[in-house]
User: What shape does this take?
Amino acid sequence: MQESNQSGKASRRAFLKGIMGTAAVSTAALSLDAQARIHAPHELETLKDYEEHWGFCDMCYWRCGLKVRTRDGKAFKIDGNPEHPLNRGVVCGKGNSGIQVAFAPNRLKQPMERTGARGDNQWRPMPWDEALDKVAHELTKVKEKYGPQALVMIGHGTWEKPYHRLAHAFGTPNTTSPVFGLCCGPRGVANTLIAGKNLTGNETIDLENCKYFLMMGRNITESLHNGETLGWIDGVANGAKVVYADPRYTITASKADEWLSIRPLTDHAFLLALIHVVIKGGLYDKQFVAEYVTGLDELAAKVEQYTPEWQEAITTIPADTVRRIALEMAQKAPAVFVYSPRRLTRTSNDLGTGMSISILNSLFGVWDRKGGIFTPQTIKVPEIDLPEFPHAHVSREEGHGDFDFAHNPFAVDVEGKIQRADGAGVPGRWPLANPQYGLTNEMWKAMAEQDPYPLKALLTAGGNGFTNSTDYDTVRKALLNMDFYVAADVSPNEMNSYADIILPEASYLERYDDLQIGGAREGFIALREPAMQPLHDTKGSWDICKALSQRLGLEAYFPHDSVADMLDDRLKKAGYSLAELKEKGIIKKPADDAINFPREMGGKSVFPTPSGKIELIPSQLQALGMADAIEWAEQPRPKDGEFHFTFGRVGFHTHARTQDNIWLNYFMPENLLWIHPDAAAKLGISDGETVEVKDPKGRGGKIAAKVTPRIRPDTVFTVHGFGHWDTRMTTAVGKGLSDSLLASDTREKHIGSISMGMNMVTVTKV
Amino acid sequence: MVAKYVMLADTTRCINCKACEVACRAEWDTPLGYSRDWVKEVEYVNAKGLPEVQLFPGRCQHCDDPPCVEVCPSGASWKREDGIVLVDHAICSGCELCVPACPYDARWLNPVTNTISKCTFCQPRIDKGLQPACVETCVGRALIFGDANDPNSEVSQLLKAKEWQTLVTDEVNIGPNHYYYTAGKAIPDAVMPKLNERHLSGTLMENIVNPLGTLGIGGMMAVFLGAGIKKLIDRRQDVSNKEGSHEQH
Assistant: This one.
């Protein structure tokens, strides 16, 4: 054994000497022990040297802090930055697979011009100068013919910001990001109306100290964001009770104490009954309500009808369960949290659902309390000096790279200015929708119908309108309507296959980007710097937009020679420098209980609503004539032979954009249709058999069935993001069925965001 | 005291996000289609008729009594004093006898190197004082690695604080050093080690060929020695015969 522990490198010669030595010893020394068979020091691997570079992740929108390891000028491993409050050093499977975004063989590698029909994927490579000249020329043509508002800019990701700025400088208000209209808009609006505070994006919940989580379909372990998930698991390990409401038994359900197999689209009814019990039973935080809350009596009158028995028929959750949960939560309050789903775009009244969640949390007095919702710290980093945007009636809130409603939540009309085509923030249309991010669903419709005015040019930065929206025909029609479409992207996808010009972006491992300015219990500024030189003839979005701005006469909006100069400029205005930020990749303001939990520490909470209080019946809704949003609205139910159609995520895919990543595709090459054994037996479907799923419009397709008790008998489910048809997506193409074909494209009635859960489907054995 | 490295997996904190698997792949450049570690998702219906899911992250169990080492004909498979089972790639012939010998399916032939690959507990990393890649990236902090012989280590504290189980059966009990916490739930059969039928050939190697080889080498040496002595005697005989015959002539 003695040799085995020597860590020195054994040379081949020593090894051979060892063999000869072995041969020289007598036969008696040969034992059955393999180590004795080779009586020589074994060779031990040693770790090769590497360099580390700072970054933050681009694989989802939580944006964990990273250290990227490189060797010989190439990135090979992504680690977490332990100093970063959003992930505390851990990186998920998606984050670890970022390496394969950069090294994917099918990346967009040089600028290209379309030579065939839109979507046919026939391309001609072209030099950057030619591509940028052409983009500037075509955009100018559209501007001259239809006005600047004819340009639509749709972004998605950490690198959309310069494109938004370029579009605003160009003079269009029509810039959108799917994050609002297609995802978390309603919950953000609900919290802003009731508490004056946003509660979305990077959640500000004291997860570790929470004692009771009521998870309303928040599949926190599979729609996962590292720091949030880790905090939640810590909370559960610290003894928090978890009640998980979802038609499907997810991995989150497997961590819960109780799974409520609620009927799809009925969360609102369940929550209204909870509010009913909490108010009727006096289970709310009376001191908090007295000091900080308005509208309790009015709300009490409204929820009088919503009894636990009433909801039972709708949700299929027993009335007693509602009563018990209300009592249990009241006993643990304020260290409790009613957890909203992140994508709250499902029903015709998501605002009502979001408000019910916000109301319950407020009644339990969780704001600014340990185990509840904390007030984040922020570091103010001024934006660079820019000229005013000349035409757009709303400008993007430049100081925030993140989803943020805190400023200019509801836009108002300004006389003589062009209104947004999607109606977001426009009086008389969708005044509650956030004009900073817009209603991407409505924008696609506006482009398809050319209503309310011509929209003739499109600029996209990432994203995939086909798979994040719900009606291929609308998106296709919109794209075919464009005089000119330029797509900036890292990887090929269905949407950018319709572009006239493709501008290939450097991946997030190959470039600088703007600062990440975040608010957790610690405030922070984080850095993304290149870990390696671009592998192909690609550019970062700031460089692309600067080059375009010069060609469009808008160079005043991109005044710095390089992104690094811009970062240094911003940081110096805040009293720091790029050199300082490069030390740890992050600059932090320490957590402070007095700021994070003022009421816990004897201070006061601040609720920036019109009344300065929590408004259970929001005054802004009343002013808009929408105070009825809290009322239950009937939702569709499956007829005999139909199923609710639901979709969701797994922990190792983000939306529809990682299925082509070879490392992630390995874990799940295609999606399956989950169906309950009873329903499957009725239809003669066995596990693994191919079935056909169809919606009432006849859309749908074939998919293999997973027969499992992990779903309600009246509901089917599939994992989002599969069913790609772009042949450039060599790994994902032709695998699985797209849920975007089956989700509904109806609208939430107050906000205008999409309602994806309203479709019923039929399932037949093929 | 020499270290004894162990891995703990708190299955209540595992979420099957695959961070461990991808981190391992990136760290050690394993070819696609093969993985040194895994997460097994087991779903079943419990006694109350409700669905349940358990998650088991796994890898080489670095057993006290590793059959992979026993069956290895070249001695490439070996166990370090701190308990880590390793493969010496300079010696490994890629014969694959160790693959079915492992009841945890932790070994596979790397088609690029043509040698056997498996989890090493990230030996080059831990020799530098780092954590294994899977542990460092684990989102739920479900994986905990360390020296069980150090009473102050996190693993020692946790081993004392909670009820841990190992993947052993009546048939397979070879001292795995990978521990699982399930909050009292029984470990499903699907996760338990199985004696691989193909292990028969390995057992053959272990119990017959290797001993025979040992005997064989001894025998060979004895034969050579005997042959040498015989040759010497024969030679002497020959010479003496010749001398004799000479004398006769």
